[in-house]
Amino acid sequence: MTEAENATTSGGGTTHRQGFPGERAELVSALLALTVYLTGLALQLTGHAGPVPQALFAAAYAFGGFFTLREALVTLRGGRFQVDFLMLVAAAGAAAIGRWEEGAVLLVLFSLGHALEGYALGRARRSIEALGALAPRTALVRRGAGAPVEVPVEELAVGDTVVVRPHTRVPADGFVAVGTSSVDQSPITGESVPADKVPVADRAAALADPGAAGPQSRVYAGTVNGSGALDVAVTRLAGENTLARVVKLVQDAEERTSPTQRFTERFTKFFVPGVLVLVAVLLAVGALTGEPFADTFYRAMAVLVAASPCALAIATPAAVLSAVGRAARGGVLIKGGAPLEEFGRLRTIAFDKTGTLTEGRPRLTEIEPVHPAGREELLSTAVAAQRLSDHPLAQAVVRDGAGLLQEAAASGAAPSEAANLRALVGLGIVAELDGEAVHIGSLGYADTLAGPPVPARLRDRTEELARTGRTTMLVRRGDRWLGTLGLMDAPRPEAAAAVAALRGLGVQRTVMLSGDDQRVADAVGRAIGMDEVRGGLLPEDKVTEVTRLRRTARTAMIGDGVNDAPAMAGATVGVAMGAAGSAVALETADIALMSDDLRRLPFITGLSRRASRIIRQNLWLSLGIVAVLVPATALGLGIGPAVLVHEGSTLVVVANALRLLRYAD
Asked: In what order do the strands lie in the sheet with 358-369?
């Protein structure tokens, strides 16, 4: 049993350990108190007066008051008066004036309600801790030429090769070294569709820099392999893998209180002593008016019960814990009540462009030959020359262009090989292909070349592509202009739908921040449906923009958690994309989307807004019950009805909070 399973949050907002018989100790004690109380009440109602009913009520005091007394002593030693203390004073007061049955019902219902709250919150905690149980306890390790051996996952070392059989869970974070398969990553990333996995091209390079292994090769502990067998190279130890860090961070999130929770803590800090002063005033007024002391004292104890803010103390923590657990099961890490509540109130969201709204890698989107029959020559020339370059744009031309040339290669056309590449920074490249000079670069570079100028029609088309946000490359071979290529970092397929869904959830303003040229940024922003686009920004400029947005509304910043970290830190809430593959993103962001799927964003927005509504509902219900019960008991309502309403309201707010565990994705 984990330590978290042995801790139960009390109505006063503190935690205590359970003894024998384990986490249900308080519930067992409360049920015993209820049993002896009902037995004593039955004897009393059937005319069996005397010591037996009195002894049974005293036993109800013992069983019902044990955990309450222990909790009160802990808080008193810390210099705090909390709900447990008020309950004990009221029960002792009832006994002092001979109302043993009244004090017994108070402690019985209070302990029973308290135990049920603990059980309900334990259920919310267990939904979080269930994540930790996903990772296998053992792994099949291939060491040397022998057969794989089974070892505890704690004995795995970085660089080990583990064998993942079909339809079993991956035991460690790593990358695929051998084999292909589809892996269900939903426990970590929330993705509904299994992700195809292929081996890395260079095992040694991937071990030296695990971050360089693409998402198509990375796997995580706790995910479920499909029908193919995989050899996985381990990159993280068992205690440091993504699943372990997520579980730890989710458990730590309980310690980060929300604004409403801080309000309730400040409120109860002054309210509880205020209640004791009110009780003293009622006793004094009764003495001055000549009312019988027993009646005055009983009414004061009833007020004490009515004014105890049990429901208020538990309302927000229960909602936060439930929402954090639900989010974790949906592939989103929320680090506590503060970011949860703040995100639920957002009206403005700022996005980084590259890697967040877009795929983070340029694609060859347009191929414009000077002559229709020259498409293949344009592509083959560009691919041959750019193959020698390591620039991201050159790699995009090679990757996408080579794919388009596959048919030609299959029909027998051998690809040409270029040589003598020379890069001209900021302009383009020049290389040699079959004895001819090949120039590839911008329109500005093309205008500096000797020989025939760029044809007017080709110039017009290149300028048109540039206006629509494409990065253009003019290609010349010898003295012949072959055409132009257009490249663009394409928006993610789900980006436009995600932004539209956010608008439907009440987000009033979406802003894209980009370091790209304003024309490129505008083109992406139009395709996605952004309200505002800011291009040409350095990292410090993004911080300035986020600060400007925060002056008018709560603002979230969505980025990759690394180069956008300064802007995320300056936002009301910082949200990292694709955090499953980034330890930095997991540690620095307030909220982390474990996958690169933007559809997680509407999910967490809706969940946060629902959580904020439930927190407000619980807050007003809790304060309303106190506001009604205090004058009612002061005017004569007894302890029994007050306890029923008091404990009933506490259970209502907990049940209301637990609805978040069933929030639909």
From this structure: 358-369, 480-491, 471-477, 436-441, 428-433, 418-424
Tokens, residue 473: 């490359």
Tell me which residues of the chain have a pLDDT lower than 50.
Answer: 1-22, 253, 410-413
Which of 352, 489, 522, 596 is an active site residue?
352
pLDDT digits (tens, 9 = 90+) for 525-542: 888 999 999 987 777 788
pLDDT reported for residue 276? 77
Distance of CA 606 to the CA centre of its chain: 13
DSSP β-bridge partners for residue 234: 174
The confidence score (pLDDT) of residue 562 equals 53
Q: What are phi and psi of 243, to 5 degrees?
A: -65, -45
Q: Which residues contact 579 (CB under 8 A, 6 or more apart)?
A: 333, 561, 585, 586, 589, 592, 593, 594
Residue 520's contacts (CB-CB under 8 Å, 6 or more residues apart) are 469, 470, 471, 488, 489, 514, 535
Neighbours of 483 (CB within 10 A): 25
Q: What's residue 531's pLDDT?
A: 94
352 is catalytic: yes
Measured distance CA(332)–CA(334) in Å, rounded: 6
Claim: this prediction has a pTM higher than 0.85:
no
Q: CA separation (Å) from 309 to 51, 86, 304, 614?
A: 35, 10, 10, 18
The pLDDT of residue 20 = 41
Strands (DSSP E) found in 501-570: 509-513, 532-534, 555-559
